[in-house]
Amino acid sequence: MVPAPPPVPVWREGWWIGESEAWAWVDAVSMALSDRYGPWAYRWYWGPGEGERLGWVTERIPAPAEAPAFVAGSLLVWRRWLDSLAERFDRLLPLLDPAQAGPGDIVAAWEAAIAHLMRTVVAPVVDDDGWQGWCRLVLRWFLTAADVPAEHAEALVNSAVDKRFDHWVPLTAADIGDIAERLTRDVLSLTGTVVAAPDGNWPDTWPQGWPSWRATNT
Known about the structure:
Layout: E1 10-12, E2 15-17, H1 19-37, H2 56-60, H3 67-92, H4 98-101, H5 106-122, H6 131-145, H7 150-160, H8 173-191
Antiparallel strand pairs: 1-2
Helix pairs in contact: 5-6, 5-8, 6-7, 7-8
């Protein structure tokens, strides 16, 4: 199924010679795999630590004899990652059912699910300019799996993971908490879920983000 790859691109006088041919080969492999296995296989080269690497195509085009094993290995890494993500979705989504969680717990369930997914997604990412796209992608998938319409899911995620994070910004635990809270607030507002006030009704963020969006005594 795997077509013969072109020669490895060569850097010469400020240009990669042969880069377009390399990408054409990647796309040809994607088409062959998705036709055979389904749409999920199109991004066979997106496994953790693969898609984010700068110069991935220019540096890693295999020799013709090695191409089938190279593609198969990358495809398996991608599939295992997708399966792992699907298992996490299956565990987290039932916790977001208001009938099961109750209004007092639904906020905590959403925030915990979003934070867990973000930590999972960014764990293998070593590039401070590479985690944003991964988080946006997975959070969009998660929201649509939770029955948020796709167009709303994209807008909500883009608003939560906003332009502050677009340029070489490392992700911190505080950022994960902030994004999880903002996205939870927007999702629940969209679905019309009434959130119960917390016990004691005291703002739980200080000083950033104060007063808390959940507090009603401010």
